[in-house]
Structure prediction request, 342 residues.
Amino acid sequence: MAEELARLRTVVEEQARTIEALVASREHMTQWLTDHGKAIEDHSRGLGDHGKEFFGINERISALEPLKEALRHNNDWLAGHTTALEGLHIRTDGLESAESVHVFTQWLGQLELSTGPKISVIMPTHNRAGLLPRAVASVLTQAYPNLELVIVDDASSDETPEVIAGFDDPRVRSIRTGHGGVCAARNAGLDVATGEVITYLDDDNTMHPLWLKALAWAFGKHPEVEAAYGGFVIDDIERVHRGAGGSLPRLMLRPYSREVLLKENLADISAVGHRAGLPAARFDESLREMGDWDLLCALTAEREPMVIPAIACFYSTDAPDRLSHGPTYDADFAKVRGKHAL
Prediction:
């Protein structure tokens, strides 16, 4: 009996200790839950504060919208005025070119050249019997007389042969070729030209009376010069791009830049001159309408040209069957760019 009571007492004591441990554990859990409840409350308040901050930021961003709109208007205003300034810059350059051409032309007119190189003018033509006499007359009435005019008849089927036969001047020479195109005709002219300096004139344009004198001065006084170009006057620049027309005549004289030249032409063929016999002075006969650009790129690949502040020719846009901006324009443009790209 005594042993049984001792055993029960031991069991009761162990249960009492277990109960005490459970009570202690409950108190610990209660404290833990209390602490975490406070932490959750603190986080909730923090989130509320951040929410208020975000709300305030949104309000400030909304308040900035009028400023952003004002900035957009300012950017549009600046873009418009930048374009206007660029246009003003172009017009200013044009005025400077016109002034330099005016001064040089006045000086050139009174200049006396005792000697100078013989200049060959190469003029390809095809079925332009009505226009040819005007172009030829502009060459034969030049202020500089030491010249020859090489007319290359590119298999004309109109009265061009009869018109050529009627030119009674020993300085006029002519040859007739198969219909190979304008570049092939110019090469044929180069093959027979006897001048020390070469220049060109299309049959629908006319040469300024002082152009050959300007070339004679440039190549005679500057032996280091191999190629040169001058300005030209376009009668209606809107018609150049096949537009309706109606604009006033405009002087075109652009400064030389190799970078710009590799992107677009800087001179018309009738405003280009070079020394005879240059290896680069040949026309790519696969090109229909951009032989002049290709030639100028080739002539200036190693040495910059002289830009002569003089009018070389008067460029006409009203002749029929013009080559400019024709059906091969895109293909020719891509080919020239590809040949001379850096």
